[in-house]
Design a protein that fits this description.
The complex is a heterodimer.
Chain A (H helix, E strand, L loop, with lengths): L1 H12 L1 H13 L2 E2 H8 L3 H13 L3 E6 L2 E6 L5 H10 L2 H16 L2
Antiparallel strand pairs in A: 1-3, 2-3
Chain B lengths: L8 E8 L3 H9 L1 H7 L2 E2 L8 E5 L9 E10 L3 E8 L2 E11 L4 E8 L16 H14 L2
Antiparallel strand pairs in B: 1-7, 2-3, 3-4, 4-5, 5-6, 6-7
Helix pairs in contact in B: 1-2
């Protein structure tokens, strides 16, 4: 679980990979060629990014002749989102700390 | 809720039993900010670029890059909040009440760098980005 989250987190920390993943989610299954036209980086770079997304289980691929087709697997975000929700309390916790500090400033 | 994919906004509000002057100090004096938020080189000067620094973790360097946008003493403080290639804006608003101050924190707006393609994303991409941003802070 922890490893999965790390993969997802790292995979989506890169803006080009986010753009590729978002494009697959928006437009559906696509070939590496089509993604390269959209991504504005070289095909080897796109392939590298896809490998990272694949490892995070954010995309799946299938071969069809010489072309490889990729499609998004947004479900892979689920464990991540649960985890993220857990940290949604970040600012509330900081508000608590702020209040504590304010109490101490009285002294 | 007409277009929830456009911007993600997180609002936290709380009334605190302290005067605005005091809360303003806690929001704008680096040494005090460090006590409740993160280490920083903040200065209450519009245009000042600074960073918040947390302990790095795998996949995140622990740095939040910021710039002061608005300084209205004891009323409003706005700074940008950028980390992991994503940026948002944090707005603090202080409103005096009978017994203290209403403290409002709004974090909103997420990147344009990925273009307008967010629209049509089926699973609330902006919400996800918003969550990711909060995590970046939460890892501190």
């Amino acid at each position: 679980m922890q490893a999965e989250r790390d993969h997802v987190f790292r995979a989506l920390a890169d803006p080009t990979r986010r753009a590729i993943f978002e494009e697959l989610t928006r437009a559906g299954e696509q070939t590496v060629h089509a993604l390269t036209r959209h991504a504005g980086v070289s095909q080897p770079a796109v392939s590298k990014h896809l490998t990272v997304l694949k490892r995070a289980k954010l995309v799946q691929h299938r071969r069809d002749g010489r072309e490889t087709h990729y499609r998004a697997q947004p479900d892979a975000l689920a464990p991540m989102v649960d985890w993220l929700d857990h940290y949604g309390a970040f600012w509330r916790e900081r508000f608590d700390r702020l209040e504590n500090l304010l109490e101490r400033m009285d002294k | 809720m007409s277009d929830t994919t456009q911007t993600h906004t997180l609002v936290i509000e709380r009334e605190m039993a302290h005067p605005p002057e005091k809360i303003w100090r806690a929001l704008t004096e680096g040494r005090l900010i460090q006590e409740w938020l993160m280490s920083n080189d903040f200065q209450p000067v519009v245009g000042h670029r600074f960073s918040f620094r947390a302990t790095p973790v795998p996949g995140w360097n622990g740095v939040i890059e910021s710039e002061v946008k608005v300084v209205e003493p004891q009323v409003r403080l706005v700074y940008s909040w950028g980390t992991m290639g994503m940026s948002s804006v944090v707005t603090w608003t202080l409103t005096p009440t009978e017994s203290g101050t209403q403290v409002r924190m709004e974090q909103s707006g997420f990147p344009s760098e990925d273009g307008p393609n967010y629209k049509g994303a089926k699973y609330g991409w902006q919400k996800f980005i918003g969550n990711l941003e909060r995590v970046a802070g939460g890892l501190a």
